[in-house]
Amino acid sequence: xxxxxxxxxxxxxxxxxxxxxxxxxxxxxxxxxxxxxxxxxxxxxxxxxxxxxxxxxxxxxxxxxxxxxxxxxxxxxxxxxxxxxxxxxxxxxxxxxxxxxxxxxxxxxxxxxxxxxxxxxxxxxxxxxxxxxxxxxxxxxxxxxxxxxxxxxxxxxxxxxxxxxxxxxxxxxxxxxxxxxxxxxxxxxxxxxxxxxxxxxxxxxxxxxxxxxxxxxxxxxxxxxxxxxxxxxxxxxxxxxxxxxxxxxxxxxxxxxxxxxxxxxxxxxxxxxxxxxxxxxxxxxxxxxxxxxxxxxxxxxxxxxxxxxxxxxxxxxxxxxxxxxxxxxxxxxxxxxxxxxxxxxxxxxxxxxxxxxxxxxxxxxxxxxxxxxxxxxxxxxxxxxxxxxxxxxxxxxxxxxxxxxxxxxxxxxxxxxxxxxxxxxxxxxxxxxxxxxxxxxxxxxxxxxxxxxxxxxxxxxxxxxxxx
Length: 468
Fold this sequence. Notes:
- The chain has 468 residues and is α/β, with parallel strands linked by helices.
- The chain has helices at residues 8-14, 64-74, 89-92, 116-122, 140-158, 172-181, 202-210, 222-235, 246-252, 254-262, 280-294, 314-321, 345-354, 367-378, 386-400, 422-430, 456-463; strands spanning 22-26, 32-33, 49-53, 111-113, 127-130, 163-168, 189-196, 214-218, 239-240, 270-275, 303-309, 360-365, 409-414.
- Helices cover 37% and strands 14% of the residues.
- The strands form 3 sheets. A 6-stranded mixed β-sheet has the order 4-5-13-10-11-12, with helices on both faces. Strands 8-7-6-9 form a 4-stranded parallel β-sheet, with helices on both faces.
- Helix 11 (280-294) links the parallel strand 10 (270-275) and strand 11.
- The longest helix is centred in the N-terminal third of the chain and has 19 residues, at 140-158.
- The chain is globular, with a radius of gyration of 22 Å.
């Protein structure tokens, strides 16, 4: 829809002019730093950074109901830079000009109502936010759209002639980083990813390779890869694209904004179920709802239900015991969440202390429940990944414990597309899971192709068809 066809009072607000005053800010000592560099930890105290708009209070001059109209009408425009996560530019990253925004089709993924049979199995109706429908088939595209737009902006404004984007990954981050970096000028930008050898699905490995990235496999687990890229970011001029980068987190706040918009901004009695890996996504989602609440766009902060596997559950253990201790991970089908020392945990802790003291709950799950949560959901019309299965199984457990009530509105996060994790489905169907997973496949969930001779009679006989 063209701008001139929209109501006159709202027209002048739809193309964002507000640029804010965005800086890096230390979450511990509050020291600010300019955005004229790639920075990940505080130079003074080494704590994590967040992005802070020092003029955010000016946005409160616009009433919350008007903000709703701005975002809803803006969704109807044909302005390319505003079609993705930057539809919420004033809240998300106002200092990035529209000319520098990289849009590859990310964001605005659907809320899909749970199938009636699946609702009965889980014991309540809920919605799946299907982030597997992003360009690289995972939620990581939200953060990469923000981070790579910032790189694009930095190249133009700082005259950079060489940029190396690097990340550690269990699959999804590397796919998103490689995809978005490949859109930039290859004479300037290089893409490198570090993966734990043998711990990334073949489907996920194919993605950064297909996007032309340099893929380095090392022995160990994700945490080992992360230590290496952190050291590189400290010592060399590289752009770190993991969630330690606060600009990555900024883009992922769009998930919260979209849920609010899709639910017509009614967040009373809302529960958002999030699988936790490196804790960047749950951080971003909490921060996103805080933005909306502080501007009176939503009436209340939702309850956040964080879900982990018992094979990698430092956040769940912290919430139940009050003590945070990194854990040694065991094999998990929720492979993207197989992280024993989440880099963004300090941010989660501070957000819980400041805003979500009574509204941040956790459950941890057996691997059997996670894989069967995925299989059950996908048998009923969904396309969730293993982390999505983790979310659904987590909701079911929370209901049984009375943590979540049936009268609440629940959105579960499926972070990636089912096909990225089809190897786990195959291992289940073939009953060949390695022992470390502690999974015993049940025949009720197994589905295999049937071999028949090439004749209609053989097919009809197998299917017990009756003649007309």
